[in-house]
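Researcher: I'd like a structural prediction for the single chain below. Treat it as a standalone chain; there are no partners to consider.
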Amino acid sequence: MVIAGEVYKDEQMDAFLNGTKKVLAFAPIPIIHTNKYRMTQQPTGATDVRFKHTHTIMPHFISEAFMEDKDNGTDLRFDFHQLVDQDYAASGYHMVYGTSGSNSFATQNQYANSMQELNMDGMYAYTGDVLAQDGSLATTRFNNGNASNYNTPIGQSLWQQVFNPNGRGAGIFVQMNWSCGDGGSVRCNQPYNAKDAGPHKTQQSLFSVLIAEVGSKTFFKIKLKVFKN
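Model: Treating it as a single chain, here is the predicted structure.
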């Protein structure tokens, strides 16, 4: 079995499970999609060309192959970069794209001049927390009921996976994001026309559920029945 890129032999899994079911929690690492087109807008005095591109923390398990970049910094079909609205801020401040401003996306983002290098680097802060394995990523369920502040992104669960020594194990991961525009400072259904001005129309919500089954290959064998006339 391969878990997080590491191969576990049958004897290792048998020793770990010790004949009982166990539930493990995983923290998927998001993919960052960068719009291939450059915009004219960037923080005053900044020379880093990365600020000229729109960067999107993609929803988990949705391929960036679906993205269709437009030369004004938006996407033809999705507004995923608007959905994050500081969901990953517990790990570090990241790039934020607002919806107030003119009809050109190049001057639409009211947060452009407040973005700094720490916001750009913050796009990878959550990945750093995952790889650090220092206990900062957890939930109340996986920390003996201890209610504390964790860096698990807002609107996400951990991937909870059952490992069953005697059969298949079910797993589930849920992600729910919502955005009402203006970098998260506008309440949903609040009358505020600037939140959908210009070419960038706010995608209001995303709800995705991953259901998985894992186990030894012996529990996934297809049994064929032969019928005789």
